[in-house]
Amino acid sequence: MTTSTGGRPRDAGRDVAILEATLDLLTEVGYDDLTTAEVARRAGAGKATIYRRWPSKAELVLAAVGRMGGDPPRLADLPDTGTLRGDLAALFRPQTPADDERSLGVMRGLTSLLSQSPELAEAASNAMVGPFVESQRLLMQRAVDRGEVPDGADVATVARVTPAMTAFRLAVERRPVDVDELMHLVDVVVLPALRVAPPG
Amino acid sequence: MTTSTGGRPRDAGRDVAILEATLDLLTEVGYDDLTTAEVARRAGAGKATIYRRWPSKAELVLAAVGRMGGDPPRLADLPDTGTLRGDLAALFRPQTPADDERSLGVMRGLTSLLSQSPELAEAASNAMVGPFVESQRLLMQRAVDRGEVPDGADVATVARVTPAMTAFRLAVERRPVDVDELMHLVDVVVLPALRVAPPG
DNA sequence: CAGTTCTGGTACTGACAAGTACCGGAACTG
DNA sequence: CAGTTCCGGTACTTGTCAGTACCAGAACTG
Known about the structure:
Arc Repressor Mutant, subunit A; 2 domains; 0% strand; DNA-binding
């Protein structure tokens, strides 16, 4: 329990560089082909520096993925266009192309990670899909509160539809998903399920 | 082009034994941890016998998975209860527990296969998810034809919802899916999307 | 019979990568 | 100063496993 006192202090900045390099590499080659040697090279670090912080490759990737999720979404930060359809359209529009590219690549890379253990799969799923579901849940609940969506709608279930189908597309079929397809899904499945009149 | 004539003929029965063993092992340990040595041991075969038929582990697993799909579903073979909801309920009820266990296990095992190449991913997806989607599409189209579902419904899109969410649950979240949950999804999402009045 | 290709089984090669062990040097404590 | 723990970098150990090479025997052709 005695935190050793002497010696050179650990540079927290190296953690960031290593995790960033891990995430980049994960998007490019996937978990299986990610090597700690390459992570070290890109981070400008030694392998010892990595293994001093994380006991295994799995823990390293887990930490890197965990960083992605960030804070849970808050309603105040979400789009507010006046209609649920508009809110969802705004939600699907990627903030920056880089963000979009990264989450797509990470999802692809995670496919191989999923096979390692349920524990890793859960963490990955939570980090990637969880915030997306929660954002939709908040938007839908607000639509219920303002009367756009009839009360009693099963928001929790419907909020899972597009994230699940997106994850399926990326992880299983391995095809990209574009915003038009997502909006088609919203018009054909999500809004009818919530008993919202279709547009046009 | 000259098919050599002499020599001991190849025993087609070994193909079956090897592919069965491959499928079994795939459900148990997944693609990454599947070794050709263990496949050979379970099939009571030599590794040479495997590699004489399939040039690589990937091709072997691909052949094993391809066997699963079988013939495309035909409307005459699908349940016909009089209502779309009843048909879907009958579709979800597994024919035999063994079938159910196997497809669940294979989906789990395939998670790691998906990361290998888009080609393998596509084959796996087609074999596993394709028939499920097609069955639902046929049932929904029949419901349209008999007037239970309004014309103009986007059957092709809605038919993908539960297969995608099932695959997502199995492959990404790695949790089992039970029939009650699927029927809840039918009542809350699928039927409303098709403009069918909810039961009760 | 001889010649060929199959069979299960074992042993081997070759490549790859996780994790460990050091190195010389840097940054801290006391 | 001495002592400790960090740093990047390199070399090494260790284990795994796909794929190959053989073997001795079996099943065929002619």
